[in-house]
């Protein structure tokens, strides 16, 4: 009877019982249903941080699994980057699967972020994977498709299907340079995006495809990229944005971002997601206010077109990898910036 009573209690409380990474039993709130607003974080560094001995604590100072801490702070979604053949092994398919399993065990939803590179892809670098470096363009398109299908199939075979998939990361000037450099050949960039899109839909047609550009306040940049993609036959479901303002200019940039988000909806009919955001950890209170304001603006978009908002690597305390835009303090506890995600 005690067992049945416990099960009934868990159902009534809308929680589930899961094993954490240490094999300890923990209670997690049930996942938010598909269609609810996504509040999340990219924690792709987590396995590397844990291997280096980093530990994480709730605000009471109790050591906990990072996924539970984030969940208890109101987050319901995890974003994970994918690299093709990284030298360290981190962010390869096996590492992504391990982290995705932990996100699923914590009843969190999933956004997968393909960089189509062996390392960082961003506005300043979009390097081809070494294995693709000498491929002609037709083969390159096939490689994008095959890599997308292979990774998502590994996840699906483990009963993990992401709600969203990015085809490229901060592709302000295209990806897989120089073949897919937008300022050189927008048609090539569009063809690569379409290859990624088709790969995603081949594994699960319900998964939404995101094209992600940084500087969400820069309407001219977004019109150039998405006009170019549309005019050259690319497809996408969601427009993704990054926002990294300062404590002094976040209000102005959020206002510009709202104008841009509304323009993207009226121009292309797309849904909008803030795939990355951050602010110096030393400005935690300003960061909290920035996030709450941007979240409200994203939620205000017509027809529920605002899908969600993601902090980029909030757990990177002690300036991990010299990154200073996290949202945990030097003792490994969340700063007040994380309170922005609370209900």
Automatic annotation (TrEMBL):
Bilayer-spanning residue ranges: none
SUPFAM superfamilies reported in the protein's UniProt record: (Trans)glycosidases
EC number: 3.2.1.89
Domain of life: Bacteria
InterPro entries found in the cross-reference section: GH, Glyco_hydro_53
Enzymatic reactions: The enzyme specifically hydrolyzes (1->4)-beta-D-galactosidic linkages in type I arabinogalactans
Keywords: Glycosidase, Hydrolase
Tagged with keyword Hydrolase: yes
A Gene Ontology biological process term: pectin catabolic process
Statement: the UniProt record of this protein carries the keyword Hydrolase: yes
GO molecular function terms noted in the UniProt entry: arabinogalactan endo-1,4-beta-galactosidase activity; glucosidase activity
Family, similarity comment: Belongs to the glycosyl hydrolase 53 family.
Name of the featured protein: Arabinogalactan endo-beta-1,4-galactanase
